[in-house]
Amino acid sequence: MKEIKAIIKPFKLDDVITELHKIEGLPGITISEIKGFGKSKAKNSTDPVREGIHEFVKKVKLELVVPDNLVENVVNTIQQTAHTGNIGDGKIFIIDVEEVVKIRTNERGESAI
């Protein structure tokens, strides 16, 4: 199992979700509105968020835990759909997941996702 975290531009969210819904067996997704900055800071942002003396860029974070056989499909779908070719398109992180426990049923492993 892998956790996939993707940070993307907010206006790409609907397109990415639409494409992810097409993946059979996708267990689910968590979405958070976030802010931050990358190497270029927020200098080139069209809509920077100012907090004190710092500027940040609005982003959306997607978090998914998927079986290993879905990882490449999910990553490729996010990458292709979120891509604009401009600075700040985002990042995708792929992290090993040792165990998942479903709180309601105490199921463990892939059946818990």
Automatic annotation (TrEMBL):
- Entry's Gene Ontology cellular component terms: cytosol
Q: Which InterPro entries match?
A: N-reg_PII, N-reg_PII-like_a/b, N-reg_PII/ATP_PRibTrfase_C, N-reg_PII_CS
Q: What are the recorded GO MF terms, alphabetically?
A: ATP binding; enzyme regulator activity
An individual GO BP term: regulation of nitrogen utilization
SUPFAM superfamilies to which the protein is assigned, alphabetical: GlnB-like (SSF54913)
Going by the entry's taxonomy, the superkingdom of the source organism is recorded as: Bacteria
What family name appears in the similarity comment?
Belongs to the P(II) protein family.
User: What's the protein here called?
Assistant: Nitrogen regulatory protein P-II
